[in-house]
Amino acid sequence: MSIEERESAASDAPSTPPEAACASSHNSTATTEAERNCWRTTAAQISSDEPNIRAAKGFFASQHCGELDDAFASFVQPDFRFVVSCACNDELRAAIPWAGYEHKGREGYQRLTALLYSEYELLSCETTRFTSAGNQVFVEGHFRLRHRETARIADSDFLARLEMRNGKIASGQFYENTAAVAAARSAD
């Protein structure tokens, strides 16, 4: 199945997992206390950082809260590109349908997350360190995913390398334990 066929099949999948999503409107009476805290904590944590760290933290926090529109409007350049592992590995593409491709713009990133969450349930994800290095920000963290069909767990540390331009993210590359993610897809 090509990535286009996979993207089409995943188009009905949520772009962020329900258990991580926060309400888009934080002033609504329908939001829970946890949803309001998600927003308040995020704003407090990123307000004093230098611009590149602030953009990286804001992007991860906004998408974690289910606010992909805000993440892209506030923290990402219009010509954004994102790759899981590398964009040149046919073996990786065969093992993980969203890896090994360059995802372009908001639409490409949304297709990537739709593919991911159509197969996996997010059990946990945390960012543990943001490091600025000139025009790059490195984000370290950890995630646990459960495959929806096999129920197998993918557990991995991760590193995201973000290229920054004018205080916004221009491109990113995500490094993970691809072997663990691919193994969780297998029923064997």
Give a quick summary of the entry:
By secondary structure, the protein is of the alpha+beta class.
Class inferred from helices and paired strands: alpha+beta
Largest sheet entry: 6 strands, mixed
Beta-strand content: 25-35%
- Put simply, the count of helices is 7
The low-confidence parts are 1-41
Measured on Cα atoms, how large is the radius of gyration?
16 Å
DSSP, total strands:
6
List SSEs in N-to-C order: HHHHEHEHEEEEH
- The first-to-last residue Cα distance is 20 Å
Shape: globular
Helix content: 25-40%
On the 0-100 scale, what is the average pLDDT?
79
Note down, in words, how this protein is organized.
With 188 residues, this protein is of the alpha+beta class. It has seven helices and six strands; from the N terminus they run ααααβαβαββββα. It has helices at residues 3-9, 33-46, 51-64, 68-75, 90-95, 105-119, 178-185; strands spanning 76-84, 102-104, 120-133, 136-147, 153-165, 168-176. Strands 2-1-6-5-4-3 form a six-stranded mixed sheet. The protein is globular. The relative contact order is 0.16.
Provide the fold topology:
Layout: H1 3-9, H2 33-46, H3 51-64, H4 68-75, E1 76-84, H5 90-95, E2 102-104, H6 105-119, E3 120-133, E4 136-147, E5 153-165, E6 168-176, H7 178-185
Parallel strand pairs: 1-6
Antiparallel strand pairs: 1-2, 3-4, 4-5, 5-6
Helix pairs in contact: 2-3, 3-4
Descriptive terms for the model:
188 residues, alpha+beta, 6-stranded mixed beta sheet, 32% strand
